[in-house]
Amino acid sequence: MNRIPPAPLVRLSMEALEVHINRLRDTMVLVLDERGRITNYNACFQHRSGYPRQKLMGSSVERIFESQSFEQLVQVGYGMQQERGDGEDALPLLTLNRSDGNPMLVTAFVLRAEIETGMRSILVLQEHGERIGVNLLERFGETMLFDEETGVILLRSDSRIMDINKLACQVLNVDASAALEEPVGKFFEQPGRKFELIRHALSEGVAVRNHPFTWMRGDERREMLMDVGLLRGPSGMAEGAYVIFKDVTNLRSLEQQVQRSDRLSMIGQIAAGAAHEIRNPLTAIRGFLQMFRKTMTDKGMVKEAGYTEIMLTELDRINSLVGEFLLLSKPKNILYDHVDVTQVLKDLLPMISSEALLHNVVVDWEVESRAKPVMADREMLKQVFLNICKNGIEAMANGGILTIKGRCRTEEGRSMVAIEVQDTGDGIQEAMLEKIFDPFVTTKPSGTGLGLSVCQRIIHEFGGTIRALNRKEGALFVITLPCIEEPR
After folding, report:
1. Backbone angles phi, psi at 113, to 5 degrees
2. C-alpha dihedral sign at 159, 165, 167, 173
3. Residue-wise pLDDT tens digits, 329-361
4. Structural domain that includes position 325
5. Is this structure's pTM higher than 0.85?
6. CB within 8 A of 293, min separation 6: which ones?
7. For tag attachment on the chain, is the N or C end more exposed, with fewer CB atoms within 10 Å?
């Protein structure tokens, strides 16, 4: 047995090793233990070799390289590092046996890594003699497969899955290793129009373009567009097919936000013009009613004085409604500042607790003590949190628990502060969930349906989102706001 040469040595953690090899999206990487067994690999290697996970992890590397022992592979790889100055054509070639039986010529070099569980050999492979055009097409295909916003399924001519990416696996609720080389119909047995469309497109050869559907997984909801088509060869015969799912959730959300903003602006403009004309007569009517109430009380006309009290209450309700109308217009004079959301909630806790006490509600407080600041108007945030918490308390007519959670999280590489307010009431009807933030939509017998619209407008002004969800017991409102990124 030949002695393994002293390849360059690096020391790093197991997590760092995995991060580094997965950053190499255009280069194949294998990680081997001291006995030549595969302990890790990157997505590029799995895609180009075609092997499922169960055929790779723990198996001997000698199985996939033709006539090469582990020691020979490492020796060749180390020797190639010393000869790289002579050009690629002068380097020895290895034959990689792909899962479909087609061999691939590769060049390689090796690194040695010391991690917590022992020594590792890192085999870095590059396909030999790629033509530029083919290379660009493959890179384009790989980019789509790695894209987290696009789901891709590639099918062979016999409708078996040749490749599938992460989002497509989520849509089908299947692991990639379990889907490869399986008939696509095996995963389309569920009822639903999108599966019928896929079957029809594959059997009849009729392309599907931009078919909309909604995909749900727990609380996560995504709006999708689906394309299905055949891949034909030079002769025109079908050699395969593709299914593409495009995630348009953000686009749909933006469209809905624009539509809501247009409606709110229109209502706000009408209200702003009418508010002055409405409030002037209200002030006069209220003044005369207060005078009548005093006169009737002095003369012992208790019944009539009671009527004036009812009228005054209704006038206050009209005045409050006009005030809410005015809030629907675009907020002006916003005082942007670095705001600690945690501190804002702490300041509101005494008010929320006193309101909860009146309704026999217990407040459960689970807010992180430290959070990154957000760019917002402190008073407007108070208005939003107070409104949401008050709605939750009023939803529990017979008492219950109001849970307020605040935590930091990362979404698409950006730091966010998430505030969750959950009650133990009756929840929100499913038909109302999509409309709950629309003006004049309310679940309260005496509500105006404007409070949540105002809250949404304010949160959108600060670049955040607000969602309503049903839980097994009660409703949950989730508010997310982007944190101020610290300069690097």
Report:
1. -125, 135
2. positive
3. 555 567 888 899 988 998 888 889 888 988 899
4. 251-330
5. no
6. 305, 308, 309, 312
7. C
Whole-Å CA distances, 169 to 82, 149, 178, 179, 349: 42, 13, 10, 8, 44
pLDDT tens profile 416-465: 899 999 999 888 887 777 778 877 677 666 666 677 888 888 888 888 88
Q: Where would I find the H helices in 187-333?
A: 193-204, 249-298, 302-328
* Rounded to 5°, angle at Cα 32 from 26 and 37: 125
Structure confidence at residue 10 (pLDDT)? 58
Is 53 found in the same domain as 75? yes
Instruction: Please report whether residue 2 resides in a domain.
Output: no
Give the H or E element holding residue 16.
helix 14-23
Phi, psi angle pair for 125, to nearest 5°: -115, 145
Say how far apart CA 432 and CA 307 lie, in whole Å.
Answer: 36
- Domains in the chain: how many in total? 4
Name residues whose C-beta falls within 8 Å of residue 295's C-beta, 6 or more positions apart in sequence.
none
Side-chain half-sphere CA neighbours of 443 within 13 A: 20
